[in-house]
């Protein structure tokens, strides 16, 4: 078991805010499956205890090297966000594997979190290799090209999403996903949207939660409602206008503002 001091970090808020799905909790301990790793992690006071990965992995995965104070100063331009930050202080945007993130959010279309988790676990079990940690058993997430049996994709209860998962498996490579990091945000988003089933929201989720585009601002039902309510007096503002407003208003870390507001919106409903 390893231990490290952390600042400005809340493990629970980070893992349970809807940005990743292969997470389970037993008491104070979380078990996380991330691509081909399975690890346990717990937080007490200012320390993290973890097993199954090293400190370098933890720092990178939880973005503990980000300038958190500067991020909060950048996005804290109004009382709404400052209130959300105060309530959910320490939440971080993680650095997921881009391929697993893409498939996860393709599964998220018209689905709730338990359904998404079921799909991802079934796909991992059908196509990934077995991995274990101290009696905990799990499955690595298959690599691009690994979701190579349409029937098994359907059997993972993916429904209408099966055709999009199969198409992504045929079209997407590791090299393609890594190349997006070098593009300007609009170009990277446009490239992702060439994949069948990927619209604005899924593209922005992948860009924000796995590729380092902290200005990406995914808009879903929750965010649409809270932005219209807090900033536009519940007017019918288009998603395009909401995105433009959010990126201008919150700046280069708009994605962090999105996630804090998302937490606030979910609690209010």
3D architecture notes:
The protein is an alpha+beta fold. The chain has three domains: 2-87, TATA-Binding Protein (2-Layer Sandwich), CATH 3.30.310.260; 98-210, Hypothetical protein, domain 2 (Endonuclease III, domain 1), CATH 1.10.340; 221-268, no CATH class. Helix content is 50%, strand content 13%. It is built from 14 helices and seven strands. A five-stranded antiparallel sheet has the order 1-5-4-3-2. A two-stranded antiparallel sheet has the order 6-7. A hairpin with a 2-residue loop joins β4 (37-44) and β5. The radius of gyration is 18 Å and the shape is globular. It starts with a strand and ends with a helix. 37% of the residues are buried.
Assigned CATH superfamily of the largest domain: Hypothetical protein, domain 2
> Total helix count?
14
Q: Which sequence of strands runs across the widest sheet?
A: 1-5-4-3-2
Silhouette: globular
- Beta content comes to 5-15%
Percent helix, as a range, is 40-55%
What is the average of the pLDDT values?
94
Radius of gyration: 18 Å
Structural class: alpha+beta
The CATH architecture of the largest domain: Orthogonal Bundle
Q: What's the CATH C level of the largest domain?
A: Mainly Alpha
Q: Unreliable segments (pLDDT under 50, ≥5 consecutive)?
A: none
Question: Under CATH, the topology of the largest domain is which?
Answer: Endonuclease III, domain 1
Distance between the termini: 39 Å
How many strands appear in the DSSP assignment?
7
């Amino acid at each position: 078991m390893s231990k490290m001091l952390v600042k400005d970090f809340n493990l629970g808020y980070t893992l349970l805010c809807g940005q990743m799905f292969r997470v389970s909790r037993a008491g104070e301990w979380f078990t996380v499956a991330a691509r081909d790793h399975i690890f346990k992690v717990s937080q007490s006071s200012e320390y993290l205890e973890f097993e199954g990965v090293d400190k370098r992995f933890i720092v990178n995965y939880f973005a503990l090297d980000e300038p958190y104070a500067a991020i909060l100063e950048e996005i804290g331009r109004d009382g709404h966000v400052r209130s959300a930050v105060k309530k959910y202080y320490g939440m971080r945007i993680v650095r997921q594997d881009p391929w697993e993130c893409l498939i996860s959010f393709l599964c998220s279309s018209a689905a709730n979190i338990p359904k998404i988790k079921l799909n991802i676990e079934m796909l991992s079990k059908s196509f990934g290799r077995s991995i274990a940690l101290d009696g905990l058993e799990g499955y690595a997430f298959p690599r691009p090209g690994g979701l190579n049996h349409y029937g098994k994709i359907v059997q993972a209860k993916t429904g209408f999403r099966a055709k999009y998962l199969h198409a992504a498996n045929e079209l997407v490579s590791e090299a393609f996903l890594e190349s997006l990091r070098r593009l300007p945000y609009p170009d990277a988003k446009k490239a992702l949207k060439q994949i069948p089933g990927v619209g604005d929201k899924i593209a922005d989720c992948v860009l924000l939660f796995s590729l380092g585009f902290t200005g990406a601002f995914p808009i879903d039902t929750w965010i649409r409602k809270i932005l219209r309510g807090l900033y536009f007096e519940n007017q019918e503002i288009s998603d395009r206008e909401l995105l433009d407003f959010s990126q201008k208003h919150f700046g280069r870390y708009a994605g962090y503002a999105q996630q804090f507001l998302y937490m606030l919106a979910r609690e209010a409903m």
